[in-house]
Structures are given as C-alpha cells and as structure tokens.
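Project standup — Tuesday

K.O.: blocked on the structure for the chain from last sprint. Re-posting the sequence here as requested.
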Amino acid sequence: MKKNTSKKNIAAKKTATRVQPKINKQEKSVKQPCQNSWSLSIYIYWFIILFFIAATFYILGRSHSSIVTTTPNNVEITEEALLQPADYYETGKTKLLAGNIEEAIVDLTTAIDSGNAAIEAYILRGEAYMQSADYRKALADFNTAIEKDPVNAVAYYDRALLNMRMEDYNTALNDINNALAAQTAQPTQVLQMRDLYAKRGQLNLWLKNWEGAIADYTNSLARPDGAVSASVYAERAEAYTALGNYADAINDYASAIRVISEQIQGATSAEERESLSSQAMSYFEKSAALNLGLGNKDSARSDLESAYTIAAALSDTASMSRIQSLLSDLQ
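H.V.: unblocked you, prediction finished:
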C-alpha cells in the first residue's frame, strides 16, 4: 500500500511539474500584448505633440511674412490695405523726409481722405506740394491747417515760406508775425524763436526796412536756442551798410567769417568746405570795400589778401584775377 501511495505522489509531482511551465507560458503570452499596446500609445502620444509643435512654428512663420490672401471673390488683400490713417501719415512723413515727394503726397492724401487726419497731415502735404512747386495746392493745405488750428506756428511759418517763394513779401511778413505770436502762446519743438526772428529779419531786409531787419537779426542772435548762422551776421551787415554804419557792418562780416571757420572744421565733405570757403571769401571782399570806404587801406589790403588766399586754395582763377587787380589799385 505504501508503495502504491508513493507512486501516486511521484506521479502527481510529475504532473504538477509538467503543468507549471504551461501556466507560465500562458502568463507570458497574456502580458506581451499589454506591453506592445503601451509602447504604441507612447509613440502616438509623441507623434501628436510633435505635430502640434510643427503646426505652431508654421503658423508663427506665416504671421511674419507678407500678409497676402484672397477672398472668395478673388480680391487680393495686402498689408498696405490694412494700414490705418495714422499709419499712412507716418509712411507719408518718412517718404517726404527721404525725398519721395509724389509717394508722400499719395500716402498723406489717403490719411486726409479718411476723414480723421491730424492737422500735421495737411501741413506735411502742403510742404510736399511746395517742394513739387504746386503752390496752389500747398496754399490750400496750409490754409486748411490754420483754419483747424489758428495757433499753429508751423502752419503760419510754412505759409510764410510759400509766400516768399511767390514773392508776396508783405503777406509773408504777416504770416511770420502770426508764427511768432503762435510760438509764444503755444511753443512747439519743430520751430525755434531764433529762426523765426531771422526769417522776419530777412523779409524786412528785402522790404528795405533796415532798422526792422537789424532789430530782428539782433533778437535772433540774442536767443539761446539753436545754432548761430553766419548768414544772420552777414545780412545784418547788409542792413548796417544800407544805413551807412560801415564799422558795425565790418564787425558783423568778421563774426560771420569766424562762424564759417568753425563750420569748416566740422564739415564732412569737400563740397561743404568749398561752399563755406566761398562764402568767407565773399565776406572778406565786402569787408575790404567797407574798410576802403572808411579810408582804412591797411585793413582793406588785409581783407583782400585773405580773400586771395582762399581763392587760390579753391583754384578759383577768376576770383584770383579780380582780387589781384583790387590789390594793385591799393598800391
């Protein structure tokens, strides 16, 4: 009986041993699909992420390119068509400063036609018309700007310049007076009182109002704002000369030459230096004539010698010959 029992136990163990590997294989066969499914999910997940990243960069790239699309009616829409009136004002201003007059007029007109343009748009377009010699349209724009803002110094100043071009000096003088009053009441950084007084001095000089010209030029030189112009000294010298005040005129020509000497040192081109040198030569000759009128032959000779030196440096043979003849007359 014991032998039979042991044999049964042995047989049971063998059976158990044979069955166990099969159970393990089944477990492995069940677990394997789960692992493959999890790996596939990860791949799909990363693929979606990469797709959205690529799509985002594509959209951002398109936003920086020119915006050109087509409507269902095949109407092309460009960036220019999406500009606002203020944008057209800025582009018009930029084009005007760059010398693109016609393009500036087109943009500024678009800004004005929007019906909500700033007064500066009329002023800038008036300046563009003035540069293109369309004085009638320029005057209309300046008039509109002044109607909209009666205390706009820039509009009055620009209209004064326009009237000076049209040789209407009395009207220009009235505009400069208004510009001075407007600048006092409502200052703007675009203009400086020094320049306004100098421009009125020029108008008084042309109108032969010598005392008025001298007063305006003196006010201009006394102003702390802006740089001193050699022409202000030279034009005041002309007014002094017209009144027979040769001594003050000579001093002003000397001051003009001093300013020019400083400007020549800072000149950035040969053309600019030559132009300034020619002005200085002219002032030396005028000063020489005044000194001669006062009987100061030595001072006149010194002025002419300085003028001759400049003419020689410029290789201006005509001026050299003329000045040499004047020097010979002083012997």
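K.O.: great, moving the ticket to review. The longest strand covers residues 69-70. The radius of gyration is 44 Å.
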